[in-house]
Amino acid sequence: MRQIFLAWRLGAWLLALGLALPGAAHARDPVQVRLIGINDLHGNLETTNLVLFLADPGAPPDAPQLRVQVGGAAALAGMVRKLRAGAPNSFMLAGGDLIGAAPLISTLFKHESTIEILNDIGLEVSSLGNHEFDGGEKELQRIIRGGCAATVPEGAVASCVQSPYKGARFKYIAANVIDAKGRHIVAPYVIKRFKGIPVGFIGGVTKTTPQMVVPSGIAGLKFLDEADAVNRAVVQLRAKGVKAMVAIFHEGIELGTSQKRGDWNDLTCPDAHGPLLDIARRLAPEIKVIFSGHTHQGYRCEIEGRLLIQGTSYGRGISVVDIALDPVKRTMLPPVRSFNLAVLNEKTDPAHREKLAAAAPDPFAAVLRDSTPDAAIAEKVARYAVLSAPKAERAVGRIAGPFTRTGKADSSAGRLIADAQLAATRADGAQFAFMNPGGIRANIECASPPCTVTFGHAFTMQPFGNSLVVMTLTGAQLKALLESQHRTTTGDPKFLQPSAEFAYTWQSDAPPGERVRDMRLNGEPVEPAKSYRVTVNSFLAEGGDTFDILAEGTDRKGGLQDLDALIAYLGAEERAPVATPRITRLP
Ligand SMILES: [Zn+2]
Fold it and tell me: How far is the CA of 179 from the centre of ligand 1 (A)?
């Protein structure tokens, strides 16, 4: 005992002199930590038909990409377990949008299914995403802390179906969301120690969140500049002696077309652009690694000495960054290695698996080659699928062709939803309807018509649970509303999808304010001073998607849930996709 003590004293003394006992040399080795990141899961728990298009390793650059079957919580869990097994220290984190805009298996259970499964997979921290606010801040706090949700009319969604919901075991973080009193609504950061060395993980969510969620749900909240807020957290962490820091943003970059077709592990990221680039350039120097999300793209970029990484979305990819910590200075050394891995599942073509494994660096080749879905997670997902199946598979109508979200301005899916919303509110005096394109979350496919539409199809297309609102706008307000469609971050207009009665021409090359021409309702010109009754969903009615003018609509009358309107419309008669656009887009 005494000898050990003496040896320890001697060791400590030598260490203080910058020397070391031969047998204790490992004490000065860098501490290796594996960071395992996911982002934008959006409740995609089941192994469905999700794919990733990846460059064919070894093939010429212009060769067709591999269409790789990926995803599912069980496959994700299996891969995370393998990654953890291969590292002395590991930490799992996420870049937000874990819930919201999700398939039935998540939405039907108020996303409790997704949070419980992420608890089981071992997620430790996630930044908030804009979709975490889809149900408002109060509902977000319930998701975090646990407790059962109030039952929605007609039992459309179910809370606490298996057992009392206990909340997230991982921490949600965001440095840039504060309430009216200036308090953070979740912790700005967490500190995790690896062999005694503290690492700060700081969260941030896109400051554009208020433009994407129902305004009443976030009333009183402020979404501050991301870089400023994270840098304030850095100052606090410094005061606590933390020198190694990682940022997790629910914000991302966009890749140029040259890389979109290429390799999501190409460090050069030619012509990358987007909000996170500017944010990253303004961050404190301690932040060497940035996990990201929101843009649903796969990339790994080295930009001005920092690593920016994202693994697409829907649990299709995992971003791994192996870092090393200096045991003396307690700082982060440059990342040892990083890699985006496809979440290969039981549907993955074995030839694809082999190709991707052969091209991956050690130690990721073995992870890709040998990972298997986690049986316990698969069973838990299956149990939720069984609970949702009777509801999901119930037939609600028939269609004569596919309804898709693609179109130059309006789409067949958009036309369907707008027509359904008008049909549901015509008795309230509505003359036409507008639907926001971002709220149409999926196509309804129909390969060999006629096809049966199930509750699951309709739900996946319209998962937000908005109600309908009929309001009065003047012709002048309608013109201003439609002119405001050009204001988007991506540069492409966000066209409100009109019902059959409403038509106009969009002149793309005209100056702002002069692009909307020839507005007609039932073939008659829309007059600026005249009043019109329009139906929109409650998200738009509050000025969502920056359509502020809709918040000014008068004589409001609430209607059905959007999903109920769609189901009623599909159930009334067989519906055929309308091929003719209602917005004539020129040139
Ligand atoms: Zn997002």
Answer: 20
| CA 54 / ligand 1 centre spacing (Å) | 23
Determine the distance separating the centroid of ligand 1 and the alpha carbon of 293, expressed in angstroms.
Answer: 7
Indicate the pairing of strand 583-586 with strand 502-507: parallel
Is residue 21's pLDDT more than 80?
no
Contact 378, 349 (CB under 8 A): no
> What's the CA-to-centroid distance between 72 and ligand 1, angstroms?
19
CA contacts within 13 A on the Cβ side of 392: 17
DSSP readout, 429-487? T--EEEE-GGG----B--SSSSEEEEHHHHHHHS-S-PEEEEEEEEHHHHHHHHHGGG-
**Which phi and psi angles does 211 have, rounded to 5°?**
-80, -10
pTM metric for this prediction: 0.82
Q: Compute, in angstroms, the gap from residue 97 CA to the centroid of ligand 1.
A: 6
Distance 178 CA to ligand 1 centre (A): 18
280 CA → ligand 1 middle, Å:
18
**How many whole angstroms from 90 Cα to the centroid of ligand 1?**
26
What is the 304 CA–ligand 1 centroid distance (Å)? 25
Structure-token pair, residue 251: 């914000």
Q: How far is CA 153 from CA 150, 157, 325, in A?
A: 9, 9, 53
Distance CA 567, CA 275 (A): 38
Rg (CA), the chain: 26
Query: From ligand 1's centre to the CA of 251, what distance in Å?
Result: 7
CA distance linking residue 155 with residue 304, whole number of Å: 52
Neighbouring-strand partners of residue 290: 247, 308
Going from the Cα of 1 to the center of ligand 1, the distance in angstroms, rounded, reads 57
Q: How do residues 184-239 score in pLDDT, each as one tens digit? A: 999 999 999 999 999 999 999 999 998 778 788 899 999 999 999 999 999 999 99
Q: What are the start-end ranges of the H helices in 323-411?
A: 350-359, 364-370, 375-393
Distance CA(391)–CA(108), nearest Å, equals 9
